[in-house]
Amino acid sequence: MSSSSLFPKPEITLSLALSPSPASPLEEALRPEERGIHLIQLLLTCAKHASSGNVNKADDCLRQISLLASISGDPMQRLAARFASALAVRLVKRWPGLYEALNWTHQ
Predict the structure, then answer these.
(1) Minimal CA–CA distance to 46: which of 99, 54, 79?
(2) Which of 39, 81, 84, 96 could pair with 65 in a Cys bridge, judged by C-beta atoms 3.0 to 4.6 Å apart?
(3) What is the model's pTM?
């Protein structure tokens, strides 16, 4: 039995861009209060998908969050950016080799 059959490649991609970017049409359409509520809903949905192992749906939520959240935005945007980052780490930890490679530091 080959090692590729023991460890099949996952067919997923994780995406999370939390750097300041131009405002998306969705962001421009929402007032700050509405954006905050939408971010909370997305974070809860993403957490639910992450805990149930539905990585593709969690990734979709992270993409939406990354359009609305910003580490340099208002308090709700900053909080959402940090939580989204933590959720992304939780998803990546499902692949110990990938997680260790991403967290490898020169000693």
Answers:
(1) 54
(2) 84
(3) 0.67
Neighbours of 107 (CB within 10 A): 3
Model confidence pLDDT, tens digit, residues 5-38: 454 555 555 555 544 445 555 556 778 889 999 9
- Provide CB contacts within 8 A for 37, sequence distance 6+: none
Q: What are phi and psi of 30, to 5 degrees?
A: -100, 140
DSSP 48: H
- Which residue, 86, 48, 40, is CA-closest to 64? 40
How far is it, in rounded angstroms, from Cα 36 to Cα 97? 35
The whole-angstrom separation of Cα 41 and Cα 7 is 34
Cβ proximity of 24 and 57 under 8 Å: no
Q: Which residues contact 66 (CB under 8 A, 6 or more apart)?
A: 15, 16, 17, 18, 84
Residues in the chain: 107
User: How many angstroms separate the CA atoms of 77 and 74, rounded?
Assistant: 5
